[in-house]
Amino acid sequence: MAEYIHVAKLAELPPGSSKLVEYGLYRIAIFNLDGELYALEDMCTHDGGPLVDGRILEGCQVECPRHGARFDIKTGNALCMPAFMPTPTYEVKIEGDDIMVAAPQ
Prior knowledge:
Blueprint: E1 4-9, E2 18-23, E3 26-33, E4 36-41, E5 55-57, E6 61-63, E7 70-72, E8 89-90, E9 92-95, E10 98-102
Antiparallel strand pairs: 1-10, 2-3, 3-4, 4-8, 5-6, 6-7, 9-10
């Protein structure tokens, strides 16, 4: 069974926003897409750019601020060059008003 870590309160992450969480050596980007929460490693697989600082595009995409690679926020899949490898995603659950994310392994 996965271990979950507390990352934020629901009020801290309104729809359309993102938040960076650091857990050990991991940087996790949390995104709120119309009330649904998603977590992925905060790293563009092209050159390590910070996805949490990227522009959220229509649908469920985030654009890396460095070179424009796009990733599916829900799946972590790379959607265009220069990235071609996916970035890891993490399960999110809500407990009361706490946002919990599966701890990276």
